[in-house]
Amino acid sequence: MSSELTLRPATGDDLPDIAQLYLRVREAAVPAMPPIVHSADSVVAWVTGWDLSERDVWVAEQDELLGFSTLTPTWLDSLYVDPGTQRSGVGTALLDVAKGLRPDGFALWVFESNEPARAFYRRHGLVELEGTDGSANEERSPDLRMAWLGNDPLDFLRRQIDEVDHDLGLLLARQAALTSAVQDHKPVGGAAGRDPVREHAIAEAVALQAPALGVDRVARIVDSIITESLDAHERSRG
User: Which of 46, 65, 159 lies closest to 105 in space, CA to CA?
Assistant: First the structure.
């Protein structure tokens, strides 16, 4: 190629080419990535409909489009490089742009099966934070949340913990409310009506979502949540 690699923000005119590149990359990546679940026409319609005021889209070109990335304020939503150009520095260049645009850090999702992408991100300093069973993505394929921790890793991780604590507070409030509501519909309410078999089944189910904790630790957490929820219920009744 005669020209040097150019990195620039995308324009609306770039979107049709970005859509075609997206399709080529996804097709070539199977089986490391699961097949696309949408038709080519729907993918093109989706990409060409992007509002470039709501996301940062960058392209890498060298006589032709070689790669692109998309960023929201806290997520690297995509980073794709033409199959024939991979391992030539294009992905690294786009990732460096993302780091420069988001100095406080960002996260991304990568399929668990996509070891080449996982290895690429690990080489460039990203870490794997958590995994899922894939039930929340369209492909229903296990995935991992990776992150670049930014210039202040401690601050980035604490912000992630703050988000989890907020969600945990909402879940605990729901748990307490439901625990209170169910007492009037049980044959025996309160602490006397606790069901150890059911509680163990709950712990086993929750532990599937938190394998690092294991059933025994989760069982102790479940026991504490139920105990305190029942105590709050009794106190509310005076």
Answer: 159
